[in-house]
Amino acid sequence: MPKSIISVERLTKTYANGFEALKGVDLEIAEGEILALLGPNGAGKTTLISIICGIVTPSGGRVLAGGHDVVRDFRETRALIGLVPQELTTDQFETVWNTVSFSRGLHGKKPNPAYIEQVLRDLSLWDKKDFMLRQLSGGMKRRVLIAKALSHEPRVLFLDEPTAGVDVNLRKDMWQVVGRLRESGVTIILTTHYIEEAEEIADRVGVIDGGRLLLVEDKVTLMKKLGAKQLILELSEPLGAIPEALSGYGLRLENEGQALVYDYDGHDQTDRIGPFLQALSAAGISFKDLSTRQNSLEDIFVSLIGERA
Ligand SMILES: Nc1ncnc2c1ncn2[C@@H]1O[C@H](COP(=O)(O)OP(=O)(O)OP(=O)(O)O)[C@@H](O)[C@H]1O
């Protein structure tokens, strides 16, 4: 695995009311990757990223960003990190340009109008630069949040539920921006409820629930591991048992013998379906209809969360 830019070690968080939001999280984030953290409401995703970003103090364990402790060396780590929060809390009467430039200043960076211009152009905000925030649509405000987070040229960008409630166009634009940032070497961590989103954009996927990281895995490996496919045949005549001639296929009967199910590896390139259908025909079995099912990240997620429930 490439060098870690963020190391989370045995991290715990108990809020003042005694609620344990994180129960010992270990996580290494590699430089340049896109990691999606999936989890239901209240899983602890925001708590985890808020600690990494230095907004919430941990109760135990530690987090290193670029080798610096996020509590002790917060100046160094904050310079490294950008956070796109869920909501905009900036002065509504300020202009886009000032808001983003001011944000850069807050991080102690020298002004760089050319850089800010580029960020605003990339986010399709350039023609809105003199608008006050209150004059912007919800989608435009989201873009301002991203521009602010990028204002100080961070190496790691956290996006907390970036596409919750945004329309399809904005979502597409956001992923384009994320793609470009990744190409420029920025490490990206996003939290999401949307499994398709993780499936679409992430290199690795982590699943959080009840304050624990249940799994972190390379997306392709995860999909492969759980990428089993099923071919379902609606039989013309129900079968009482699997015919001897087909015993090598590991078939199952469902729906009182009316459906024959063939499990196969969806990522295996060899043609399994053709020979199987020939064997079926040779055995004198005919069918009315056929369909396939594939495990998605959604199934994986549901089964993981379900196991805990
Ligand atoms: N300041 C606080 N005091 C007490 N409990 C808190 C505090 N902040 C968060 N919590 C609780 O900690 C748990 C985890 O919250 P967190 O915001 O990290 O979850 P999340 O995974 O980001 O959820 P969501 O997807 O809804 O944003 C929740 O049960 C929440 O109520």
Automatic annotation (TrEMBL):
<dbReference type="Pfam" id="PF00005">
    <property type="entry name" value="ABC_tran"/>
</dbReference>
<dbReference type="InterPro" id="IPR017871">
    <property type="entry name" value="ABC_transporter-like_CS"/>
</dbReference>
<dbReference type="InterPro" id="IPR050763">
    <property type="entry name" value="ABC_transporter_ATP-binding"/>
</dbReference>
<keyword id="KW-0813">Transport</keyword>
<keyword id="KW-0547">Nucleotide-binding</keyword>
<keyword id="KW-0067">ATP-binding</keyword>
<dbReference type="InterPro" id="IPR027417">
    <property type="entry name" value="P-loop_NTPase"/>
</dbReference>
<comment type="similarity">
    <text>Belongs to the ABC transporter superfamily.</text>
</comment>
<dbReference type="InterPro" id="IPR003439">
    <property type="entry name" value="ABC_transporter-like_ATP-bd"/>
</dbReference>
<dbReference type="GO" id="GO:0016887">
    <property type="term" value="F:ATP hydrolysis activity"/>
</dbReference>
<dbReference type="GO" id="GO:0005524">
    <property type="term" value="F:ATP binding"/>
</dbReference>
<protein>
    <submittedName>
        <fullName>ABC-2 type transport system ATP-binding protein</fullName>
    </submittedName>
</protein>
<feature type="domain" description="ABC transporter">
    <location>
        <begin position="6"/>
        <end position="235"/>
    </location>
</feature>
<dbReference type="InterPro" id="IPR003593">
    <property type="entry name" value="AAA+_ATPase"/>
</dbReference>
